[in-house]
Design goal:
Radius of gyration: 36 Å
Distance between the termini: 138 Å
Shape: elongated
Largest sheet: 5 strands, antiparallel
Number of strands: 10
Structural class: alpha+beta
Length: 280
């Protein structure tokens, strides 16, 4: 009888221990569960970081596109209002020299008030011109300058020195009226100067050299798509714009290698009269 009671007690005790073991985790199981939880948390954090970086990149790209659209919209507006004749092709590019190198960073557009120039057959007045160029005091700023009070006549088209001198005066005169197009223009140091990363390129067909050449007949000029008649023809002026935008207006980031580059172009046509051609 005593042996039976002892056997029953042992069986009950083992049953209780087995039940407890089923409701608990071993040390190995706990470590494994913690490792899996850590991996899951790390994965969630990584995904959240990737999502945040993607959002930030997309947001920056949208802002850059808006800046680019603002710049091109202002240039396009000036080009649509421009006036051109045989002495001035409506728009020109003025280059800047530094350390013996040339940088075409200024676009000049002839935009008379209400489309009516003071001298339709001659050169524009300075008050009728619009200048798109980096600011002189802050190379990270792209500005649109005007000279509303100047009645002086613009330099001749072939007077490169005169145009460069005029642009240099505008660049150093902070009192002139101007419109800030962006303060995120990337710039770089070149010698003792800081130059904005914007370039303008202008192409004409027929070119000024062809127009003045005595070796080319009227029919031999490079008329675009053959658009000419016996007494007049259509000149095409094409402008290409390249600009680099820095991540932010902070001056410490402008010389960093990261930037976003935009390239665009636009063109317009105007009429040339055969009897106004001056051959040299």
């Amino acid at each position: 009888m005593i042996m039976i009671k002892r056997l029953f007690f042992v069986i009950c005790f083992e049953s209780i221990l087995t039940e407890h073991r089923r409701n608990a985790l071993t040390l190995v199981e706990m470590l494994l569960a913690m490792a899996i939880t850590g991996v899951l948390i790390a994965g969630v954090v990584t995904l959240a970081k990737v999502a945040e970086d993607t959002f930030q990149t997309a947001n920056t790209a949208i802002e850059d596109v808006q800046v680019w659209k603002t710049v091109t919209r202002r240039i396009d507006r000036a080009i649509r209002r421009c006036y051109a004749n045989e002495q001035f092709p409506g728009a020109i590019v003025v280059s800047r020299t530094a350390e013996g190198f040339t940088f075409p960073e200024t676009l000049v557009v002839w935009t008379p008030i209400d489309g009516k120039p003071i001298d339709p057959a001659g050169r524009p007045r300075l008050k009728e011109l619009v200048f798109f160029m980096p600011a002189g005091q802050a190379a990270n700023e792209l500005r649109e300058y005007t000279l509303p009070d100047s009645q002086a006549v613009a330099p001749a088209l072939e007077d490169v020195t005169g145009w460069r001198s005029l642009v240099a005066q505008i660049r150093t005169n902070s009192a002139l009226p101007s419109i800030l197009l962006t303060n995120r223009l990337r710039y770089f140091s070149f010698g003792s100067e800081k130059l904005g990363a914007i370039r303008f390129y202008l192409e004409m067909a027929p070119s000024m050299e062809e127009w003045k050449s005595s070796s080319l007949s009227w029919e031999g000029l490079s008329w675009p798509q053959g658009l000419f008649a016996p007494d007049r023809g259509q000149r095409r002026v094409r402008i290409r714009v390249e600009i680099q935008l820095a991540p932010s207006p902070s001056t410490t980031e402008f010389e960093a290698p990261y930037c976003r580059t935009f390239i665009g172009s636009l063109a317009f046509y105007y009429s040339l009269r055969k009897d106004a051609r001056v051959i040299q």
